[in-house]
Specification:
- The protein has 2 domains: 321 residues, FAD/NAD(P)-binding domain (3-Layer(bba) Sandwich), CATH 3.50.50.60; 105 residues, Alpha-Beta Complex (Flavocytochrome C3, Chain A, domain 1).
- It is 38% helix and 20% strand.
- The chain is built from 13 helices and 18 strands.
- The protein binds succinic acid.
- The site of succinic acid (SIN) has 10 residues, from helix 7.
Length: 437
């Protein structure tokens, strides 16, 4: 087994992992792990944008929109943090070079469901991809950060309730990575569903591991279905292409197979999804239709280039044709329980982004609050780690020596065993979250 040591280990290279890495002190030695290639994260697929408090007067409205969409099941303290720190995060991304759409130097805000006003900054319909590329450009230039791709974690090393690192499996070998602080930023669970807008490799590994180790989970059953994924009779993979809610924000309307409207398009996601499912049942159909043909082709090519070209590949011109859509698993609101500094119930183990549950989304996430949560709470994790490692550096050394010398390496230093552990972990999660629905 190969052994690596780091001050900080970050598992996942989406927005939360990358932004956490950028906010860590530059004297810390950081290892980042990606299960597949770097861009196989949900951040890369995000279309709509990032919600932000547009000015000081928008605090109450943004807070209430988040609570109302979340069915008031949200953690109010987390929502306060999210709203308060949202603007600082977006200004930071702007400084880092994310090419947000702007008018005369001011952000161009778009609208999505359940927002009382336009407050979503975006890069046309490639917001996630451009945020990812910008953050990665900065991370890759930092000498204190090493990135290891195509490597899956399958166990946590712990002693006296403290996390000391993880065991993982690359294409060639098992690797033990010892770390003073470990950050789980490994995304959602869509890969265990037949229909999901997520990357297929995202199978809830961090949550499964957390569960095996008795780490506190929070509302694991809170799962969001996006109302409008592209419906295709024949598909090449499990992932369904997302038709962003921002189309409805820009006036697109929903019709059933008889050409009738049946729901207000900008209600919260769970309400629109339920209305569509009811309509599919009533009309005995596989999909409903989204119509944005009231806008011009040139506008659509400019504003939604990704959606325009992806639909065209399947013979649908969104400027003239209605788009067949169907609900699809999209986001996991529940996950590994964390406090306001992204600390889990295990010492020195943090969770950020979709695998965590800050409670910010309650029972139903408000559109475009996911990248924002990843930014705000991963920065908080980084600040906490900077302070904790700074204060306690000496106590870590003996712990790390222990973890590379003893422990269960002998058991796990076996590729087949590792593969079995990973397989069982996914099976358990699937039984619990999918089959019991
Ligand atoms: C979308 O563009 O509809 C998705 C954005 C989100 O999930 O918040």
């Amino acid at each position: 087994m190969k052994i690596l040591n780091a001050d900080v280990l970050i598992i996942g290279t989406g927005v939360a992992g990358l932004y956490c890495a950028l906010n860590l002190d530059k004297n810390l030695d950081v290892v980042m792990l990606s299960k597949k290639s770097l861009e196989e994260c949900n951040t890369y697929l995000a279309q709509g944008g990032i919600a932000v408090r547009v000015n000081e007067y928008d605090y109450d409205a943004f807070f209430m929109d988040t609570m109302k969409a979340g069915m008031y099941l949200n953690n109010k303290e987390s929502v306060k943090v999210l709203v308060n720190e949202s603007r600082e995060s977006i200004l930071d991304l702007d400084r880092l070079g994310v090419p947000f759409n702007k008018n005369m130097g001011e952000f161009e805000y778009t609208k999505e469901g359940a927002h009382v006003k336009n407050r979503i900054v975006h890069c046309n319909d490639k917001s996630g991809k451009l945020v990812f590329e910008t953050l990665y450009e900065h991370v890759k230039n930092l000498e204190n950060i090493r990135i290891v791709e195509n490597t899956t974690m399958f166990d946590i090393e712990k002693r006296d309730g403290k996390c000391l690192g993880v065991y993982c499996l690359s294409e060639k070998e098992t690797i033990y990575i010892g770390s003073k602080a470990t950050v789980l930023a490994s995304g959602g669970i869509g890969g265990i569903f037949k229909n999901s807008t997520n990357q297929s490799c995202l199978t809830g590994d961090a949550m499964a591991l957390a569960k095996n180790h008795g780490i506190k989970l929070d509302t694991p059953g809170y799962i969001q279905y996006h109302p409008t994924a592209l419906y295709l009779e024949k598909r090449e993979d499990k992932r369904r292409f997302l038709i962003s809610e921002s189309l409805r924000g820009e006036g697109a309307l929903l019709f059933n197979s008889r050409g009738e409207r049946f729901v207000k398009e900008l209600l919260p996601r769970n309400t629109v999804t339920s209305a569509i499912l009811e309509e599919l049942e009533k009309t005995n159909s596989d999909c409903v239709y989204l119509d944005i043909t009231h806008t011009g082709e040139e506008y659509l090519k400019r504003r939604f280039p990704k959606i325009y070209s992806e639909c065209l590949k399947h013979g649908i011109n969104i400027a003239t044709d209605r788009i067949p859509v169907t609900p699809s698993q999209h986001y996991h609101m529940g996950g590994i329980g964390v406090d306001l500094h992204s600390r889990t119930s295990m010492d020195y183990l943090y969770a950020v982004g979709e695998c965590s549950c800050t409670g910010v989304h309650g029972g139903n996430r408000l559109a475009s609050n996911s990248l924002l949560e990843g930014l705000v709470f991963s920065k908080r994790a980084a600040e906490d780690i900077n302070a904790v490692i700074g204060e306690n550096n000496k106590i870590f050394e003996p712990l790390l020596r222990y973890s590379v010398k003893e422990g269960k390496k002998l058991v796990t230093d076996n590729r087949n065993k590792a593969i079995e552990i990973i397989g069982n972990m996914r099976k358990d999660l699937k039984n619990e979250l999918v089959d019991s629905r």
